[in-house]
Amino acid sequence: MIRDEIKKLIASATYTDKADVVLEHHDDKVFGDYSSNIAMRLAREQKKKPMEIAENIKKTIVELKVDYIEKIEVANPGYINFYLSKECLQGQIIKIIEEKEKFGELYEKKEKIMVEYSQPNTHKEFHIGHLRNVFIGSALVEVLRKAKYDVVSANYIGDTGSHIAKCLWGIEKFHSNENLDDINDKAEFLGKIYFEAVRAIEKNPEYEKEFKELQNKFDQDDPTLQALWEKTKQWSLNEFKKIYELLGIQFDVYFFESEEEVAGKKMVADLLAKKVAERSQEAIVVNLEQYDLGVLVLVRKDGSALYGLKDIPLAVKKFKEFNIDTSIYIIDIRQNLYLNQLFKILELYGLREKMVHIGYEVVTLKDGESMSSRKGNIITARELIDEIDNRVKSKFPDSPDSLTIALGALKFSMLRYSANKKIEFDINESIKIEGATGPYVQYAHARICSILAKAQSLKLEWQSKNNLSLLSGERELNLMRELNKFPELVEEVSQSYEVHKLTYFAIKLADKFHSFYNDCRVIDESNLELTQSRLELAKAVKIVLAETLRLIGVSALEKM
So where are the chain's domains? Predict the structure, then answer.
């Protein structure tokens, strides 16, 4: 990357480590393509004025006569601004067209990373909140792979717990005479039964007693309840599979709470022996108050295992069986305390590996009452996708693929916000063809495809070699500057995990392409040499735009 080359120059000129050199982009071209504050950082250490240090750095680098730097300027109070040469920017077009979708790939990493995301509960419907989790996780996996990490994508299915016992109780209590195999939408049925059971138990104390009795039987492996659990669990898993296929999501490995619970119960004696856990009022807990993390209950006094007892063995399994270096958890931000408790427990247990929690905020639907499910005000993923698809069909009646546009609008809108920001999802805003939306970026890609198809249909006689030096206008240069940022973006997101920055880049690249298209005549039959050069630029934008969309799971359409 050009940025890394400039960092090396600065490091060499200042006798510092390249890792200590920071380069920034500025929207205002007055500050160049890259700007460094290294002189101000060194001023105190060298007991010199920042401007003096900056001028010395500038002089040293200028004397090297590097061809990819057009000029270097020093600005108060000590910034060093680097301007890339036109030849350097034009060279990026050649690089992009040669490397195609591989443009932006980084060097091979030794680090192996597992990203755990999605984590739906069986016997509950896949809802709008699950979608944000899935989109963040999937995008992060793709970026890390683009950055050449060894990545394992994992899904941890919640197939045990009180919510399942309530669902089984509801089936036994209110639907025992029904033929369950005849039910059409089995996932919807389970969601309905769960909420029906919750409401019934809340209103009737006798039902609470019945539920507890069934839960005890289930925990003791009652064969009838176990069979019902296996049957209904598979319904949920089948539905999850359909949703993942619809969203274009794949996992390398699945973990199940029921299996980790067994492993966790086997670990209890070891946790007690190592004094990580202790007995308290017939329960088993971990006291973390000295770390300001409170007390985490692992096993209730009735013997039922809570989340912690399942997550501890799973964490150990990840590192030992999959030989990973980093474990990333994408989980609701409201679980931040719990994740900190878990990481501290694992540290006390002796697992001092790198573990990261990426928390995300809740998602609500604007004017949600009109979309609320009758099954407990849960907006399911399928309901939302169907609604967006219907509105896309209405807005784009001639579109050959409304569902692809709908999914693109949904994914892009969900990823447009930083994970720690709440989302009020607005369907009508998400499908607009103008503004910061998926369809807007998809339209930019489709427009380029249309231009390239038109050029091909004209059967123009091209020059034997492209003259990219003709691409020297301000709109063309701005577009090339943006393309140059893509590899840096991949690196940045792979380190910060802030996948929302991909959408910012896609919008900005689409904006700059539209500005270029509006101001520059791409196909000019009276100037075939310039036409050919501009078409090459359009091809480069198409490649990078498509690859950016791929990373966030949005299809790059050729026609809208």
Answer: 2-84, 86-116+432-560, 120-257+307-363
